[in-house]
Every structure is written in C-alpha cells, then in structure tokens.
Amino acid sequence: MIEQGTQSARSLALDVLTEIERKDAFSNLELNAALNKANLTRREAGLATELVYGTLSRLNTLDWIATQFVKKPTHRLEPWLRNLLRLALYQLHYLDRIPDRAIVHEAVEEAKKHGHKGTVSLVNGVLRNYLREKEQLNPPTQWPKFKKIALEHSHPEWLVKRWLSAFGEKETIAMCKTNNLPPTLSVRVNTLRISKQAFIARLQQEIPDAVIEESLLSDVGLLVSHAGNIANSPLFNEGLCAIQDESSMLVGQAMDVQPEMAVLDTCAAPGGKTAHLAERMGNRGSILALDIHPHKLQLIDETVERLGITIVDTMEADARALPESFQQAQFDRILVDAPCSGFGVIRRKPDLKWQKQVEDITAIAAMQMELLEQAVRCLKPGGKLVYSTCTVDPEENGRLIHRFLDSHTEFELDPSLVDDMPPLLRERFHQSGAYIQILPHYFSSDGFFISRLRKRV
Ligand SMILES: C[S@@+](CC[C@H](N)C(=O)[O-])C[C@H]1O[C@@H](n2cnc3c(N)ncnc32)[C@H](O)[C@@H]1O
Fold first, then answer.
1. Among 6-15, 266-275, 296-305, 329-338, which is the least confidently predicted range?
2. What is the SS3 assignment for 334?
3. Does the structure show a pLDDT above 70 at 241?
C-alpha cells in the first residue's frame, strides 16, 4: 500500500511498476493514481514519472542485464524484486545524475523493507557486480542484427525484425532511439476563441517559465516545455487550446473541410480531431462523431463544450455496422481515425510495445478494413475520406489502402493531399501524393499514417 506523504520518488516508482505488472494495469493510470495519493514535490514527481516510463521502456535490456548476474531467470523472481532490480539497473545504466552509491543504497533499503537477508544480499550483489563488470556487458557476437538492435534499443525482437524489412536498418534504429525519448508536448490553439499570437502572449504572461516554439507542421500548433501541466492552466480551462500531437493536427488539415459541410467522424473519442475539424469549419456545418464506447462519448462532449464548439453531435455506434440511414452517400467528408497497434506513440505508452504481438496486427488490420468498407458507403460522390492511424505498420496503413482500392474502383487516391500539407512533408510523401507515413524521428512527433481517398463522381 502507498501511504500518503511518506514516499520517495524511487519507492513510489517501485510500487507503481510492481502494481502495473500485478494488475496488468495501464501505466499512465497507475502512475497518476499513485502521484495523486502521494505528497511529492514537483521535482520528485517528475523523477518518479521518468523512472516509471524509463524502466518500462527498457524492460528487455534491463532483464537481460539482470540475468547476467542472477542465477534464476528474472521471471522467476518475486515481482517486487524483479522490479527493484530493473529500477536500480535503469538508474545505473541510463541516468548519470544520480550517484551510483545512492542508487545502490536506496535499492538495498527497499529490499530490506520487502524481503529478507537473502534478497537483500542478492540486490546488493547484482548491483555491485553490474558496476564492476558493466564495460564487458555485450550481446554475443553471433547474435543476428535484429536481436542486437532489439537489445541495445529496448524493443521486442519480432517488431525490430518487422521494421527492418519495412524500413531498413538506419530508419529502424532511428525510430527505436526516438521511441525511447520523452515525448514533446504540443498544443493546438483554438482559433475560434483566440489568435495564435494572442495565445502565445497570454501563455508567456501566465507561465513565464514556459518555453514556446511555433510548430513547423501545423499553423495552429505550438511546442511547449517547462510549463507544468497545461491541462490545469486557466488557458486550458477557458477553452483556448487543446493538447494534441503535431502529427495528429495534420489529420485535421488533411480533411480539407469547409464551413457548412456535413462531416462524419467514425472513430471519434476522445474527440481531439473532431474538435479540430469544427475549429477549421469555423464552427459552421455539422459533425457527427461516433464511438463504440458510450463512456468515451462523454469525453468528446466535454471537449467540445470546453472549446465552445456547437456543431458536433455524438452517437454510440459500431462503425463496422453503420445504420442503413447513414449509407445514403450523405457526407462531404469522412474521417476514419482507426484504432490501431499504436506503434507510432511508443514514446507516450512505452508498455504498449511489450503488450502487442505479431498476431494482433493481422486482427487489427481486418477490423480496420471493415471500418473503411463501411465508412466509404456514406460518402457523397466527389467527397473525400481520410484514413489515418497512429501506427507505422504497413499492414495497417499503405498496404491496407492498396488492398482496399483493388476491390473498390469507385474510389481513387487523392493526389492533392500533398498540396494541402506543409511543404516540409513533401519529400516524405508516397509517390501518389495521396498518403504519407510519418515516422516518429522525422519531426519528433507521433508516428502517423495519413491517406486521402476520393469518391469518383
Ligand atoms: C485512434 S482512437 C480515435 C482518436 C480520435 N479520433 C481523436 O483524435 O481523439 C480510435 C477510437 O475508435 C474507437 N473504436 C474502436 N472500435 C470502434 C468501432 N468498431 N466503431 C466505432 N468506434 C470504434 C475507440 O473507442 C477509440 O476511441
């Protein structure tokens, strides 16, 4: 149990890591709950967050290091002990601002709290041996490339193998490296309420420490750092901005919406892109936002209300089986922002890479195809449909679009997408000009796939 106000960042991180494993819980939810209960300073809370996400993102490498010094395989250790070793090794191996002595000392004290003499000496021994032998820790030379990359850059072997064949070695390594970095924070200015320049002035005035940079990808995007939790700021509560990744903002831009259009957003919750579309439409026209999970519709309602948007209606629906009444080609624009494997957002959800398996991708792609097949039936002739995902897997992205087009001659790739996107993206586009795969290391934004189809008239 976590007691209020009595924990250090490292002890809280250990409890959170152990609980995530025990309950198979979402890391962000478990960490936020623990931080809310504990009484850490802002700095300590920052350290706890870094330790939890850092350790989660490096799991395979840390376990490999531990196995060099423990006789048992790490999965046979008690969960608290396994996570204590991971946490201490993470700090020793990847962080240089905490002295080694302090790390070992605190780990041993934690072991005394949770274990017995034997486990205390195991922790002490493993960490001291690591410090003595760390320079000689190398994967066996006969290992194939994918295994070495997976170990050095802390990704599952199957995923690295897949990326090597899709993107080549240079891109794979660059992507893995970026996935291990903390994500950037960006906000979208709500231009229904304030201009970008006025927003920058207010942000600077209210949070003088904030470092603000204009996004090169989106004309309404700002990169913000040293600003604390923006979601608690008056600017956010007054509906002047939304927190959104820059790649995600590009999806709104790709939709090429105009005021007074009828728009369908088939996988809309929590509503980030729905709201962006409404802003781009000047809050004129109509957007029908669907989601299969009723509780998530409330998130869309809250977002649009906060942003002063009035043209969005929400509805619970399984977009793989849309109501007959929708299917009469009535929408000018449709967005299918499909659920996906999420491999473009590993920076934000590091545990995701360990949870998904190769078989999941086939199942996800089949579901995405169903979503696309249904959505296209609701599009007006001449209308445009954007299919996007926050993943980098070709099976869910480019290959899926080509498979779709092979059996739907009434649709074509829309080559004018490239002209609606920032020039910076041009060289990354598919030769058709109709879709782009953004990898996380291109612009330090989320990995996203964005494509646009047009229904022939
Ligand atoms: C990638 S998220 C959408 C993010 C959203 N467009 C945004 O920008 O905030 C995918 C969403 O699809 C929803 N979903 C999953 N399966 C669905 C289905 N069969 N029909 C409708 N929505 C579905 C999920 O609940 C999830 O909220």
1. 6-15
2. strand
3. yes
Decide: 291 in ligand 1 pocket, CB within 6 A.
Answer: yes
From atom 12 of ligand 1, which residue's Cα is the shortest distance away?
Answer: 267
Ligand 1 pocket, residue 299 CB under 6 Å: no
Model confidence at 392: pLDDT above 90: yes
Q: Is residue 144 part of a domain?
A: no
270 assigned ligand-binding residue: yes
Q: Is there a domain that residue 424 lies in?
A: yes
Tokens representing 105 are: 């000392």
For residues 239 and 263, membership in a common domain is answered with no
- Is the Cβ atom of 152 under 6 angstroms away from ligand 1? no
CA angle 266-287-230, nearest 5°? 85
Residues 273 and 370 in one domain: yes
Give the integer Cα–Cα distance in Å for 405 and 413: 8
For residue 340, indicate whether it is catalytic: no
Query: How far away, in angstroms, is 264 Cα from ligand 1 center?
Result: 13
Tell me what the pLDDT averaged over the chain comes to.
95
Report the C-alpha gap between 338 and 391 in whole angstroms. 10
Q: Is the CB of 267 under 6 A from ligand 1?
A: yes
Whether pLDDT at 108 is above 80: yes
Examine the domain organization and report whether 379 and 268 are in the same domain: yes
Tell whether 109 and 250 lie within a shared domain: no
Domain range enclosing 206:
185-243
What CATH code is carried by the domain that includes residue 217? 3.30.70.1170
Q: What pLDDT digit, counting tens, does each position of 151-197 carry?
A: 999 999 999 999 999 999 999 999 999 999 999 999 999 999 999 99
299 & 437 share domain: yes
| pLDDT higher than threshold 60 for residue 198 | yes
Domain at 312, CATH number:
3.40.50.150
Tell which one of 292, 299, 341 to mutate to probe ligand 1, the residue whose CB is within 8 A of the most ligand atoms. 292
Q: How many domains does the chain have?
A: 3
Q: 403-410 contacts: CB < 8 A, separation 24 or more?
A: 403/369, 404/369, 404/372, 404/373, 404/453, 405/453, 408/376, 410/455, 410/456
Q: How confident is the model at residue 329 (pLDDT cuts 50, 70, 90)?
A: confident
Q: Kindly state the percentage of the chain with pLDDT values over 90.
A: 90
Give the CATH number for residue 118.
1.10.940.10
